[in-house]
Each structure stands twice: as C-alpha cells, then as structure tokens.
Amino acid sequence: MGVVPVQETHDPRPTTRLFAAKWRHEHLRMILIGAILSFAMITMFISLLQDASAKSVTIVDGSSSSVIQTLKDDVTGLLKEQNIVVGPFDSVSMPLTASLEQGSTVVIDRAVGITLQADGKEAATHTTADTVGEALAAMNVTVQADDRVIPSPEEQLQDGMKVTVVRVRSEVVETKHPIAYTVVNKKDDNLESGKQKVVTTGKEGVLVKKTERVFEDGKLVSERIVGNAVSQPAVQQVVAIGTKKKAKVVTLAYEDPKKDENRTLKLNGKTVKVRRLLNNVTLTAYSAGLESTGKSKGDSGYGITASGTTVSEGRTIAVDPKVIPMGWWVYIDGVGFRRAEDTGSAVKGKKIDVYYDNEKHANRFGTKKGYTVYVIGPVKPSAD
C-alpha cells in the first residue's frame, strides 16, 4: 500500500515573530509621530514665549524710519542687532545704556562736516544741526544784524559745505571843509582914485560833511555822503574902491623967504599963508592895528587919536606938539595936506608919523628923510 504523506502543520513561531515585528513597527511610527508633534509644540511654545517678550521699537536714522521687533533690552544691543554704526559726531536721542520699552523711539542725527570761516579764522567741524543758522547757534557764533552769512541762515546744511560769516560795521564821520568868501567892491567917493580900502574883512565859512563808511571784516568797502551842513557861514569881504579925483600937484612959491609970516602957498591959483617952514623932516607911517598901537579891533580906544578924533587915512598925522600944534594943518611935499591929530612916544622933534589904514602898507613905508613941511594953521586951505 502506498503511503500517504502526512502534511506538516504551520509552525506557530513564525506567526508570533511576524506579529511582534508588526507591533513594533506600528509603535515606532507612533513614537516618531509623537516626537514630531512634541517638537512642533515645543517650538511653537518657544516662539510664543519669544513673541510675548519682544518689544516694538521705532528707529529714525537720518531721513529713514522703521519699526522693528527686538528682544534687546538696551540701545546698545539694539544698534548691534540692527548693524547700525553711530559715528563719533552723530547724536542719539537716548543714552546707549538706556533701557528699551515697548514703543520706544530711537532717533539718530547724522552729523555733516562743514568748514566755518569767521573773525579771520577758518576751521573744519561737524554738526548735527539742520540749517546754517542752527549750526552757528550751536557753535556759539554770534551774528549781528548787519553781518552777512553765506549761505543764508535758512539754508539746509550739506556735507562739505563752507559757511562764511562776514562781519559788517558802519560808522559816520564828520569832516570840516572851508567855504571860500566872496569879495564885493564898492565905489567910495571919499577915497582917492586908484586906492582901495578893506571895509569888511572876509572870513571863510565851515562846511561839515557827514560820511558813512562801511567795513567788511575790517576792510573799507564803501563810503557815501549822508549829510552836509554849514556850521559857520562865510563872511564876504567888502572893499572900497576910491573914485575921488586926486588933487593937482601944488606949486610952492614964496614972496619973501626971509619972513615966515609973509610966505604964501599957491594951491590951484589960491594963496595960502604959511606960518612956518620945516626942513629935513623925517617921515614914518603907522596904522591903528596891533603892531603900531598895541590894540585890536574891539578894544577900548581903538582908532582914537590923542586929540579924540578917529583916525582917517589922507588926514591924520602924529606930531610932536612942541613943533606942530595939535589941530593944525600942514603940507608935506609929495604927501599932501595933513592935520596934526595924534602923538607918539617915538615922534619927537622934526618927525611926523603918517597914518594909513593898511598895516602892511604902513610897515612897508619905512623911514624917509629930508622932507619939507609947511605949517599952515588950524584951518584947512580950500580952493574957495
């Protein structure tokens, strides 16, 4: 008989191992998913914690502005975090050690380099000011009302700009200038023709000019006249011009030269008795001025003779009363008729001092000797 093989049944161990492997696989996946979920939750939790502690801070850097979230506690940390470099001349609105708060604003003013020229000096400097005027104020540079600032104080500052302050000073000075006097000639029929006499002495006036001078940085740049005023008017000079005709030259003739009382003088056909004849008379001249009398116009007794009359050119002479009586008329060769009205300490003997208005002319007259003088008497001869 044949043998029928008996089939072997399944070994239960492989089935158990498969189940265990399957179980481990399922649990490993669960563990992995759990780990991933846990990591995600932890990450989210940390993120939530970070978000909860972050601060919103505004940074204004020059002309730009931005709002950021930061975990930094102070300004220094914030600047490092944002890679912001602050220069040595820049300005930060908060101290670098200041704590940051929610909503804090940090302003950074960037400095610009400028060149300042003022008061004879030029220097390079940095400033965080916005305008030229603000920069000058920050540098304690005083600008007066008349000073000029280039560029204008309202100009916005730019890096590398040159700012110039021009010091402007003005002054008004007074200067005096002479005003020439005019000369007026007037005819005088009491003065011999060809002669002149100063009646009123001319005097220069004074004109005061006011000039405004403008200086920039000590240098004169302009000047203009701002006013004229006459502080003293000129006094015109009045000159008398003689129109009186000169008397004809007289011819002297004596009927009897031995007797003084019988001597006669023919003047224009008229006979005049001569009391006395003086030979070798010395002539000098004088005036009423300071050099001759020691007096000036305005002084008491100026121009008054010893006899009380007022001196008059063409009439007055000073004599020695012992030789020629006061008030008597004489005739001097080459000079003419004159009247003894004055005396003088130096007029002694046969000496006569002839009066002239012009002091310079009197000085130039000098001393003349050898003149003949005819003593007539107290009455002046006339053609009548």
Describe the structure.
17% of the residues lie in helices and 40% in strands. The chain is an alpha+beta fold and 384 residues long. The protein has 4 domains: 55-109, Roll (Ubiquitin-like (UB roll)), CATH 3.10.20; 112-166, Phosphatidylinositol 3-kinase Catalytic Subunit, Chain A, domain 1 (Ubiquitin-like (UB roll)); 170-243, Single Sheet (Resuscitation-promoting factor rpfb fold), CATH 2.20.230; 247-377, Barwin-like endoglucanases. The strands form 6 sheets. The chain has a 6-stranded mixed β-barrel with strand order 18-22-19-21-20-23. The chain has a 4-stranded mixed β-sheet with strand order 2-1-4-3, with helices on one face. The longest helix has 42 residues, at 12-53. The N and C termini lie far apart (232 Å).
Quick summary:
This protein has 5 helices and 23 strands.
